[in-house]
Specification:
By secondary structure, the chain is α/β, with parallel strands linked by helices. The chain has twelve helices and twelve strands. A seven-stranded parallel beta sheet has the order 3-2-1-4-5-7-10, sandwiched between helices. Strand 8, helix 6 and strand 9 form a beta-alpha-beta unit. Helix 1 packs across helix 7, helix 4 runs parallel beside helix 5 and helix 8 crosses helix 12.
């Protein structure tokens, strides 16, 4: 049997694929979830043979001690994902930072963990200050991550810095290696219906004609299977870099809609470009997106280089188009869209 790996956030979209791939590659895996008996969120993990499932509230110190005990490797994929909140300090920043501190301190107490891979986001790398032609790499930190501007990005920045602080506090010669993985907008096949509420939700809304058209917004996309592979390779290779950016290429929402319209013509996906003024007006009545976010992002491109991940981790990223199609196919075939 392979090394024992503890995976937090194991029921999430990324975490589930990480768990699945680890098991397929022969690792022993402990999946950490908030509630083991939540069939809607955890049921798909129960169908993975040989998987141990642990229950833990990661905001509580010591809650991950049992799951990390005897583990050689840890993947910390658990983190709140929401762009807006009435109390972002409490629900986003404090949760992300506290959970990271607690998981890494549990890993340190275990005394057996030799490497931790933390799931972050390109939100910790790129803000809105650079020109559209600027290519972001692992050396970049989001200069615009503030509680009043982008609390989600702030939670990612501070969680990564907290992980570095915990590692730095360990005795010299002791502790573990630390790698932070920064995926772009994550698409790809869903393993559970609940995953349709995370990043694949845009594809689902397009298929269901919930959007009146396409705002002039885009995202740098990456397939969840490549994200999972990056996590596993970062555990496996002898000397990984401290950070990896994961992205295939930039894609506008209209291009995504056109791909879906071509693949599923019976769905009559709306592909019309929406005027910016109309999008800004509509944001006044939306809970999931703010006017400030739109003003910073409408029509703006953000570029990323994943050359380091290609070189070190040997990843050939799936085309963003395929990720869109496979996202939709998994939803349609399962009756989730």
């Amino acid at each position: 049997m392979g090394d024992l790996v503890c995976v937090t956030g194991a029921a999430g979209f990324i975490g589930s694929h990480v768990v699945k791939l680890l098991v397929e590659k022969g690792f022993r895996v402990r999946a950490v979830v908030r509630k083991k008996d939540d069939e809607r969120k955890v049921g798909h993990l129960g169908r993975i043979e040989g998987l141990e499932i642990f229950e833990a509230d990661l905001t509580a110190p010591g809650s991950c001690d049992a799951a990390t005990r005897g583990a050689s490797l840890v993947v910390h994929a658990a983190s709140p994902v929401q762009l807006t909140s009435k109390d972002p300090q409490r629900t986003l920043v404090d949760v992300a930072v506290g959970a990271t501190r607690n998981v890494l301190e549990s890993a340190a107490r275990a005394g057996t963990v030799r490497r931790v891979v933390q799931t972050s986001s390109i939100a910790a790398v790129a803000g809105h200050s650079h020109a559209s032609s600027y290519v972001h790499t692992e050396k970049d930190w989001n200069p615009d991550a503030r509680l009043d501007v982008d609390p989600y990005a702030l939670s990612k920045v501070l969680a990564e810095r907290e992980a570095l602080a915990v590692k730095a506090s360990l005795p010299a010669g002791a502790g573990f290696g630390l790698v932070s993985v920064h995926p772009a907008y994550v698409l790809g096949p869903l393993l559970a219906k609940v995953h349709a509420r995370s990043s694949p939700s845009l594809v689902r809304e397009m298929l269901r004609r919930k959007l009146p058209g396409c705002p002039n917004l885009g995202m740098s996309g990456v397939d969840v299977r490549d994200v999972a592979l990056a996590h596993v390779r970062a555990l496996e290779i002898e000397e990984p870099a401290p950070r990896y950016v994961l992205s295939d290429r930039w894609m506008w929402t209209r291009e995504m809609a056109e791909i879906l319209a071509e693949t599923y013509p019976d769905r009559r996906v709306r592909t019309m470009r929406l005027p910016d003024a109309l999008v800004l007006l509509g944001s006044l009545f939306m809970k999931r997106i703010t006017t400030g976010y739109l003003r910073r992002n409408l029509g703006k491109t953000r570029l990323f280089s994943s050359d380091l991940a290609r070189r070190d981790l040997g990843i050939e990223f799936r085309p963003a188009r395929d990720a869109v199609v496979d996202t939709a196919r998994s939803m349609v075939e399962a009756g989730w869209a």
